[in-house]
Specification:
This protein has 16 helices and 13 strands. It is of the alpha/beta class. The chain has one domain: TIM Barrel.
C-alpha cells in the first residue's frame, strides 16, 4: 500500500458512547427503540463517553492513522433544536486527542440515530422540515470542527436508515403507506445530503466529503434469465438508487418506473433538481460484510417476513451454496466480493473509495484474560488481501477501517454478537466496568500496520 494509505478502525456513536442523559445529550430514536428483554441497549453501550482518552491511547498503541466514528446528533444538538456546548466540547476533546497522536479524525454526520423530538413533532424524515434541521446540524459540525477535521462522511447506510422503523420512527401500520413513507424519507435524506455538501464546500473549503454505502454485491442464484434480471433489480433497489442520487442526482430509471407504478414515488419540488445534480461527493465509503444472493420471486410466495427493502415483486433472497456460513454471518463469508463490488462501483461512479466497515461477528469468549479470535484474523486478512489486489490494479482506495475498533452494542443482539479488535468486558445484563482487553486480532492488525509503515 502507498505511504498515505489510511489504516483505521471504525465505531458509531450510539453503539459505543453510552453516557445517556449526560453532558446535555438529548433523547435519540436509538434511546427509545424496542430492545428485546435481556439484551443491552445503547444507554451505556461500550461506555466510550467515560473511556475516551483510554480508547484513543489504545488506538495509538494499535498504530492506526485514522479513526472513523460518528457524531451523535443528540449530543451535538441536544433536543435537535439547540446547540449543546457540552457535546461540542466532548467531540473537540476527541478530535484534538486524535490529532495529537497523529490519528486523522473521520466523522460521519448521520449513523442511524436522530432526535426523537423530530419524530414526535413532525414525523422525522417523512417531512421536508427534517432536511433543514439536518443541514443546520451539519453546519454546526462544520463550523465547530471543520478547522481541524478535513475528511467527512454524510449518511451511513441509507438503505438501513430508511428501512429500520425503530431508527427513524416510521411506524405506519398500513403496509402500502409505510412503503410510500420509506421512499419519501430516503428522498429527503438524499436532498439533505446534497444541501449539506453545498454548505460543506463553503465552510470547509479544503475538506473532502462523501456518502457511506452498504455495498451490495449481488449474485443471481442461478443463470436463469429471470434470476439474472432479479439480481439486476436488486442492485438498483439496494444500492444504485442511493449512490446514483449521491453522485448523479437521479434515480435509476427502473427504480423510478417501479415506484411510479406502485404510487410510491416521492414528492419533490421543482428547485430540488438543480441541488441534487450539483454538489458531487469526493469519495464513497464502503461498508462490506458479505455478498447477497438473489433470485426471482416464486408465484404466490410470501416475502412479508423479510426486511422492507426486499418486499417487492422484483426479487427476493436466494441461497449461495458456495460460501461458508456461520451463526452471525448467515449470508456467507466472501472476501472476493469486496474486490468485485468495489470494482463495479468505481467503473460506475469513477470516485475513490474508503473501506469504512468490514468485519466478522462472533460470540467471543474471554479465557484467562485473553481472546483468541483466529477466525477474525483470517477474515480480516482475506479481505485486506483483496484491498491490496484492488490497489495493485490501479484502482483508487484511500484506506481500510475494520468494524469495529472495540466491541459495540449490536442493534438486536447486544454484546452476544461482537466485532471488535478489543474485548469490552461486560454482558448484556451487567455493564461491569467495561474494561478493555485487546484480542489476538488487535495484535495481528498492529503488526500488519507496522509492516506497512
Amino acid at each position: 500500500m502507498k505511504k498515505d494509505f489510511y489504516w483505521g478502525a471504525s465505531t458509531s456513536a450510539f453503539q459505543v458512547e453510552g453516557g445517556f442523559g449526560e453532558g446535555g445529550k438529548g433523547v435519540a430514536t436509538t434511546d427509545v427503540r424496542h430492545v428485546p428483554e435481556g439484551i443491552a441497549d445503547s444507554k451505556v453501550a461500550s461506555d466510550h463517553y467515560h473511556h475516551l482518552i483510554e480508547d484513543i491511547d489504545l488506538m495509538t498503541e494499535l498504530g492506526i492513522n485514522l479513526y472513523r466514528f460518528s457524531f451523535n446528533w443528540t449530543r451535538v444538538m441536544g433536543d435537535g433544536y439547540q446547540v449543546n456546548q457540552e457535546g461540542i466540547a466532548f467531540y473537540n476533546q476527541l478530535i484534538d486527542a486524535c490529532l495529537q497522536r497523529g490519528i486523522t479524525p473521520f466523522p460521519t454526520l448521520y449513523h442511524f440515530e436522530m432526535p426523537q423530538a423530530f419524530v414526535e413533532d413532525f414525523g422525522g424524515w417523512q417531512s421536508r422540515k427534517c432536511v433543514d434541521h439536518f443541514v443546520h446540524y451539519a453546519e454546526v459540525c462544520f463550523e465547530n470542527f471543520g478547522d481541524r477535521v478535513k475528511l467527512w462522511g454524510t449518511i451511513n447506510e441509507q438503505l438501513i436508515a430508511t428501512a429500520a422503523s425503530d431508527l427513524n420512527g416510521n411506524h405506519e401500520t398500513d403496509s402500502n403507506q409505510k412503503m410510500k413513507q420509506m421512499y419519501q424519507m430516503s428522498y429527503h435524506m438524499s436532498l439533505a445530503e446534497k444541501k449539506a455538501i453545498a454548505r460543506f464546500r463553503e465552510i470547509v473549503k479544503d475538506g473532502q466529503i462523501g456518502p457511506v454505502c452498504s455495498m451490495q454485491v449481488v449474485y443471481p442464484e442461478t443463470p436463469a434469465p429471470n434470476d439474472i434480471l432479479a439480481s439486476k433489480n436488486a442492485e438498483d433497489f439496494l444500492q444504485n438508487c442511493f449512490l446514483d442520487m449521491s453522485v448523479f442526482g437521479r434515480y435509476p430509471l427502473s427504480y423510478q418506473n417501479y415506484l411510479r407504478e406502485k404510487g410510491w414515488y416521492p414528492e419533490t419540488q421543482s428547485e430540488d433538481k438543480a441541488i441534487l445534480c450539483k454538489n458531487k461527493p469526493d469519495f464513497i465509503g464502503i461498508n462490506y460484510y458479505a455478498s447477497t444472493c438473489i433470485r426471482a420471486l416464486h408465484p404466490d410466495e410470501d416475502n412479508s417476513k423479510l426486511p422492507p427493502f426486499y418486499r417487492n415483486e422484483l426479487f427476493t433472497l436466494g441461497n449461495n451454496d458456495y460460501l461458508t456460513k456461520t451463526k452471525w454471518m448467515e449470508f456467507g463469508i466472501d472476501p472476493e466480493g469486496l474486490y468485485i463490488g468495489m470494482r463495479d462501483i468505481y467503473e460506475r461512479y469513477g470516485l475513490p473509495m474508503m473501506v469504512t466497515e468490514n468485519g466478522l461477528a462472533y460470540s467471543d469468549i474471554l479465557e484467562d484474560g485473553q481472546v483468541h479470535d483466529e477466525y477474525r484474523i483470517d477474515y480480516l486478512n482475506q479481505h485486506i488481501l483483496q484491498c491490496e489486489r484492488f490497489v495493485a490494479e490501479g484502482y483508487p482506495l484511500l484506506g481500510y477501517s475494520p468494524w469495529s475498533f472495540l466491541d459495540l452494542v449490536s442493534s438486536h443482539q447486544g454484546f452476544h454478537k461482537r466485532y471488535g479488535l478489543i474485548y469490552v468486558d461486560r454482558t448484556d445484563t451487567n455493564s461491569k466496568s467495561c474494561a478493555r482487553i485487546p484480542k489476538d486480532s488487535f495484535y495481528w492488525y498492529q503488526d500488519k500496520i507496522h509492516k506497512q509503515s
